[in-house]
Specification:
The structure holds two protein chains of two kinds. Chain A is α+β, with helices and mostly antiparallel strands. Chain A has four helices and nine strands. In chain A, the strands form three sheets. Chain A has a five-stranded antiparallel β-sheet with strand order 6-5-4-3-9. In chain A, strands 1-2 form a two-stranded antiparallel sheet. In chain A, strands 7-8 form a two-stranded antiparallel ribbon. Chain A is globular, with a radius of gyration of 14 Å. In chain A, 38% of the residues are buried. Chain B has one domain. Chain B contains two helices and ten strands, in the order H-E-E-E-E-E-E-E-E-E-E-H. Chain B has helices at residues 4-15, 159-171; strands at 21-25, 30-31, 36-37, 42-51, 54-59, 78-84, 91-100, 103-109, 129-137, 140-143. In chain B, a hairpin with a 2-residue loop joins strand 4 and strand 5. Classes of the chains: A alpha+beta, B alpha+beta. Chain A binds chain B through residues 25, 27, 30-31, 43, 47-50, 67-70, 72, 81, 84, 86, 88-89, 92-93, 96, 107-108, 132-135, and chain B through 26-28, 43, 61-62, 64-68, 86-87, 95, 109, 111, 125-126, 131, 136-137, 140-143, 146-148, 150-151.
Chain lengths: 135, 188
């Protein structure tokens, strides 16, 4: 299988991030019993109530949806170790930490239509993101 | 573990665990007919480490991140959820999952300062805290109600275990896929 590299050495030397690693994983699709992005989001975030953190490759930022308390906050997560040569090691993906809040709401059902990143919907953003935390 | 008998037992266990054991599962993975979680649905590796007999587990898909197990293979266990620190490659336990009848009922998120000391509970979420879990719809476990009342202080009865976890983390244990350290169990 020919795989398309998105970012070289993302995880470590020679450990690249590939296009097929972006978006929801097989595990989440299986848990949600759906291939539809919104339905997977509705299951994992809205129904189960998990926090979500992801790295959006198109703007080189980490984002977190801190969903375990009210208000729910969507944040740009800081890079804890920005000097690491590997992007995956630069952010813990802990949604508890402080970060610039770009959206907040009290009802998780508002997230899907409410969150926009660089003018793009969550569906578009997640399809171009590596999901690092779902807990 | 210094007696010959224990050493023999350790070697035997190590020999039988060339591959990491896969344990526990995600939402809806407990099968009544099986009396457990099917192997294909299991989400975590058993590192082989134990604290007071509780298993130390890491997420199979991404060992650098932690995620609670929804359905336990045992009936009423406590699982210690760890991740591998990206920079030091050390095991860091940062979650305690408490289960009843194969279902996650309470999770404890442990927060540490830069020296590895526990940050106690506070209302700002920067401290260690607990959440209750419930069945949000039939067969689907989730955090109980998204409201302020589900950001909880940690019950004192877990303090002894938490003290041992802090000590475990500070010791800098390492783990790699394919390694099962039963011989290094930490029965403290």
């Amino acid at each position: 299988m020919n795989r398309t590299v998105v970012i070289n050495n993302f995880f470590g030397d020679g450990e690249h991030l590939y296009e097929d690693q972006l978006g929801w994983t097989k595990r989440e699709k299986t848990e949600a019993r759906s291939l539809v992005s919104k339905e997977i989001f509705d299951f994992e975030v809205v129904l189960v109530g998990l926090n979500l953190a992801f790295y959006y490759v198109d703007d080189d930022r980490f984002y977190g949806i801190h969903n375990e308390s009210i208000p729910i906050k969507v944040k740009i997560l800081p890079r804890d170790t920005p000097d690491s040569p590997y992007i995956n090691s630069q952010c813990t993906g802990d949604t508890h930490v402080d970060g610039e809040v770009i959206f907040s709401c009290r009802d998780p059902n508002e997230l899907w239509d409410g969150v926009r990143i660089d003018g793009k919907s969550l569906e578009e953003v997640l399809s171009r993101s590596y999901i690092i935390t779902l807990n | 573990m210094s007696s010959p008998m224990k050493l023999m037992k350790s070697r035997s266990i190590a020999k039988n665990n060339k591959r990491s054991l896969k344990v526990m599962g995600g939402n809806g993975s407990y099968g009544k007919a099986l009396g457990g979680v099917a192997k294909k649905d299991r989400t975590h590796y058993d590192t082989g480490y134990r604290i007071d007999g509780h298993k130390v587990l890491v997420l199979m898909e991404n060992i650098n991140h932690n995620k609670f197990i929804m359905n336990s293979n045992s009936e009423n266990p406590i699982y210690l959820i760890a991740s591998i620190a990206k920079n030091t490659h050390r095991l860091v336990i940062s979650g305690i999952g408490i289960y009843e009848k194969h279902k996650l009922t309470k999770s404890i998120d442990l927060k540490f300062d830069s020296d590895g000391n526990l940050i106690p509970f506070d209302s700002s979420e920067k401290g260690s805290h607990a959440h209750n879990w419930t069945e949000n719809s039939p067969g689907v476990l989730g955090r109980k109600r998204h409201d302020e009342s589900n950001h909880l202080p940690i019950d004192d009865k877990y303090q002894h275990l938490i003290d041992k976890i802090v000590d475990f983390n500070k010791k800098g244990h390492t783990w790699e896929k394919g390694q099962n350290n039963e011989q290094n169990s930490c029965h403290q």
